[in-house]
Design brief:
By secondary structure, this protein is of the alpha/beta class. It is built from 10 helices and 8 strands. The strands form 2 sheets. It has a 5-stranded parallel β-sheet, with helices on both faces. A 3-stranded antiparallel β-sheet has the order 6-5-7. The chain is globular, with a radius of gyration of 19 Å. It starts with a helix and ends with a helix. The N terminus is likely disordered. It binds zinc ion.
Length: 236
């Protein structure tokens, strides 16, 4: 993901309509997409565009745990026991994070809710959401994209069979190490993750569509075109 991230961090992507750090727009957004659909990258771009933080529940759980406040400790117990964190605990963790100063212009919620039960729990809480954005990318495209990623066993540099080809096939430009496909990116594993998304998370689209909150962006081949599509559906 590093390679895409570098591009995502480049301001050039937004083209001539660049409106970084807009002031006075409140955007409380949930972002949903299949693993490998480019959600993290688009979340970062939106975060810059609206000057709002991306709240990744995975990341705050990890941070809370290392910081050691009460909620983090509670959540940490579940994680350490290999259990899922209960919805009500997640709501508390999210709510606590959203009460921080940097969320006053809004936020991008990434990784929560993951299923209908969590969405219902979120509805019952006092957390307000304006828009639920989904980025649609076909499974075959995701499998091809992730399957093309290569990682150096030695130094961790990342490559792609199509988008970032090493000078010598199978060999790291940096250190000469062997390039391999990460276990996470193997087609069987990707298919499994996609199936979980389709069965658990995708029903949220209908759930939020019925509430009139759903905005659908169709992912494009490259990051900047997808970014423009995302802004368009958000009415920017
Ligand atoms: Zn290397």
């Amino acid at each position: 993901m590093e390679f895409y991230q570098q591009f995502a961090n480049s301001t050039k992507l937004w083209g001539k309509d660049c409106k970084f750090e807009r002031i006075g727009v409140v955007m409380k957004l949930i972002i949903l997409a299949a693993p490998g659909a480019g959600k993290g990258t688009q979340a970062e771009l939106l975060s810059k565009h609206f000057n709002i933080p991306t709240i990744s529940t995975g990341a705050i759980l990890r941070k809370n745990i290392s910081d050691g406040p009460r909620l983090g400790e509670i959540a940490g117990k579940y994680i350490n026991d290999g259990k899922f964190v209960p919805d009500e605990v997640m709501i508390e963790v999210v709510s606590d994070r959203l009460s921080k100063d940097d969320c006053k212009n809004g936020f991008i919620l990434d990784g929560f809710p993951r299923n209908i039960a969590q969405a219902e729990a979120l509805d019952k809480s006092d957390i307000e959401i304006d828009v639920v954005l989904t980025i649609e990318v076909a499974d075959e495209t995701i499998i091809e994209r992730l399957g093309g990623r290569l990682e150096c066993k030695n130094c961790g540099s990342t490559y792609h069979k199509v988008h970032r080809i090493p000078k010598v096939e199978g060999v790291c430009d940096n250190c000469g190490g062997n390039l391999v496909t990460r276990a996470d990116d193997k087609p069987e594993t990707v298919k499994e993750r996609l199936n979980t998304y389709h069965s658990q998370t995708e029903p949220l689209k209908k759930y939020y569509e019925e509430k009139g909150m759903l905005k659908i962006a169709y992912g494009k081949e490259n990051i900047s075109d997808t970014a423009n599509e995302v802004l368009k559906v958000l009415g920017e």
